[in-house]
Write a structure and sequence with these properties.
This is UmuC domain-containing protein. The structure is a single chain. About 40% of the residues lie in helices and about 20% in strands. It contains 13 helices and 12 strands. The chain has a 5-stranded mixed β-sheet with strand order 5-6-1-7-8. It has a 4-stranded antiparallel β-sheet with strand order 9-12-10-11. Strand 7, helix 6 and strand 8 form a beta-alpha-beta unit. The longest helix has 21 residues. It binds a DNA duplex through helix 8, helix 10, strand 9, strand 11 and strand 12.
DNA sequence: TCTGGGGTCCTAGGACCC
DNA sequence: TCTGGGGTCCTAGGACCC
């Protein structure tokens, strides 16, 4: 049996944990750039705030109901996530951490599920302060379904018999299924399929034709036959991305180069932290697709490096050159990003026969960069092309403190 | 005026190779 | 007038996830 444990309203719960006076009050967390709502406490949901609502469209509701607003604080959420996962790993010897706020656990030989599972839930809340819900079923897809249904029935739901599963899928709305997004739902709607049970009754071939091999897997999972295995060891990453929206539009190539410099620097840092180098560097630019009156431009280009690299100077150089080629005058850019692919372990450096490797000089530079920035704070030593004013930088006006990661932000108890 | 970021997997088509 | 088969690599786009 699989268990899916998921933190309730995770970001909102994490923020409220250090501001207990907000218990029982509506809380929302905004995306980067304070753009849209990405987490809501139960009270905020009751106020009519929906997932993904742009902040500027719900400003009236926020005021009317005195909703507490937070910018996203990923350092805090990342740390709280680690604590929750650590607690879960005490109960599940085989744990598959699926995202920042959920994990699949394997319940192999456990017999008294109905009494065992609630104990897991209570211990996580007690030891981390983060409330979780747990759904248990024979497949991952059904465990996800059970987890969703559990939120309305005390936070635990165990589907351990044919009868319980059939009853559950009969009332479960098809658009809430794991793996069903907007496009698939449209198709189902046209066919009059409204529940998971109605979908499950379609022939296997139909799934394969309309939803590729993923649909076929879903079909088996809905009938209780596992098709998606537990992944205890995360596969090696295929790509690493750094992308951000700008605070305002960028219309000048020099300013774009500043932003791209910062993103490529961050990317190089991430690669080094993971002990990887990349062979391809992709750069992309976006305009604001919500503005029909603006000319749209979504250019992208992938550059192949001669030698796999994770050096800041290498990646910044390529990224700035590529972005300059992609840039078009008279266009208002909203966002840019860099993606590293063709990732290879740092230790397996493949040299190129026609170009000399520098004998590790760049690695030395990178090491010094990382050491100084670790000791004196991120950005202490950086590329000059990053610029000084950085007016394009993210907006986060409602940022909470680093309660669990910064000495100066630790809460004092009188 | 203001609408996130970081991923995965799958499919299809074109260029190129022998 | 007639022009293959099998493979890889790369790019792009679509769909989905949290």
């Amino acid at each position: 049996m699989f268990a899916l444990c998921d933190c309730n309203n995770f970001y909102a719960s994490a923020e409220r944990l250090f501001r207990p006076e907000l218990n029982g009050r509506p809380v929302v967390v905004l995306s980067n750039n304070d753009g849209c709502v990405i987490a809501r406490s139960e009270e905020a949901k009751a106020c009519g705030i929906k997932m993904g609502d742009p902040e500027f469209l719900v400003r009236d509701l926020i005021k009317k109901f005195a909703i507490q607003v937070f910018s996203s604080n990923y350092v805090l959420y990342g740390d709280m996530s680690e604590r929750v996962m650590h607690q879960l790993s005490r109960w599940f010897p085989r744990l598959d951490v699926y995202s920042i706020d959920e994990a699949f656990g394997w319940l192999g030989g456990v017999r008294e599920l109905e009494s065992y599972v609630p104990r897991i839930r209570e211990s996580v809340v007690r030891n981390t302060g983060i409330p979780v819900s747990i759904g248990v079923a024979p497949t991952k897809t059904l465990a996800k379904l059970a987890n969703k249904m559990s939120k309305k029935s005390g936070g635990v739901l165990v589907l351990d018999s044919e009868e319980k599963i059939t009853a559950a899928v009969r009332e479960f709305p098809v658009h809430e299924l794991w793996g069903v997004g907007r496009q698939h739902y449209k198709k189902f709607e046209a066919l009059g399929i409204r529940t998971a049970a109605e979908l499950r009754d379609m022939p296997e071939m139909w799934f394969k034709q309309h939803m590729t091999i993923m649909g076929q897997r879903m079909w088996n999972e809905l009938w209780g036959r596992p098709a998606i295995p537990l992944e205890q060891v995360r596969e090696v990453k295929k790509g690493i991305t750094v992308s951000r929206s700008f605070r305002n539009y960028i219309e000048q190539p020099e300013i774009l180069a500043e932003a791209v410099t910062l993103y490529a620097s961050r990317l190089a840092e991430k690669l080094r932290r993971e002990k990887l180098r990349c062979l391809y560097l992709q750069v992309f630019l976006y305009t604001n697709k919500n503005r029909e009156d603006h000319p749209q431009h979504f250019p992208s280009h992938t550059h192949k490096l001669l030698i796999a690299s994770n050096s800041t100077t290498d990646l910044v150089g390529v990224a700035v050159r590529v972005s300059a080629k992609l840039f078009r005058h008279g266009v208002k850019y909203r966002k840019a990003g860099v993606i590293a692919t063709g990732l290879v372990p740092e230790s397996e450096l493949q040299l190129n026969a026609f170009f000399d490797h520098d004998g590790g000089k760049k690695d030395t530079v990178s090491a010094v960069l990382d050491k100084l920035n670790l000791a004196f704070g991120r950005g202490t030593l950086r590329m000059a092309s990053e610029g000084y004013e950085k007016k394009w930088r993210l907006k986060h006006e409602y940022l909470s403190k680093g309660y669990t990661t910064r000495w100066s932000d630790i809460i004092k108890v009188k």
